[in-house]
Design goal:
The chain is an all-beta fold and about 210 residues long. Helix content is about 0%, strand content about 35%. It has one helix at about 140-145, and strands spanning about 50-60, 65, 75-85, 90-100, 105-115, 115-120, 130-135, 150-155, 165-170, 180, 200-205. The strands form 2 sheets. Strands 1, 2, 4, 8, 10 and 11 form a 6-stranded antiparallel beta sheet that branches. Strand 5 (about 105-115) and strand 6 form a beta hairpin. The longest helix has 4 residues, at about 140-145. The protein is elongated, with a radius of gyration of 25 Å.
Length: about 210
Amino acid sequence: MSKVVIQGHASGTGDFTIAAPNSNTDRTLTLPDVAGTVLTSGSNADFPAGSVLQVVQTVKTDTFSTTALTSSPADVTNMSVAITPTNTSSKILVLVNGVGGYQAYQVNFRLMRNSTPISIGDAIGSRPRTSVTSGSYVGNASYEQYHYSPFSICYLDSPSTTSSTTYKLQMGTYNASYTVYLNRNHGYQNTANYDATTASSITVMEIAG
């Protein structure tokens, strides 16, 4: 028969109390057959590295459009989320999902931490640095205006702070004469079965470091 052994700590002086809950029901607590620490509650500092400490999300269900250039992209309205890390060693997993539309060529998206671009490509010549490009030139504006282009960003950030930190999405176009969109296409006809309005989201998770 297995036994449960409660062993004191040689250098500890505090009392460890096992308290029964206020219950009239008999219950059985089965310990896992593994070595280590069993933690069911506590402060965030108690959880091991890799644990998810908090999750914050924003969902945008309306549409957005801009003619801002990729070199100076526009903040997307209501596509930002703030999180306050518990520890400076924490990492923040940022997940962005959405659907872009464009009048011609493509729409470019950039992920920001406060005022700092993150998860962007290297500086190579005069090329823009973006997190993701959605769409491609098909050479026929009558087709492009009805095109939807899904995109996603997945980035593990190390903000090294316990201050409130905002993650947001920016977007831009290659030419100010061409409008780009979020959650819709350019044609956007008012019909029952196509040219839909979609939703986009930013989800951030604090991961214990």
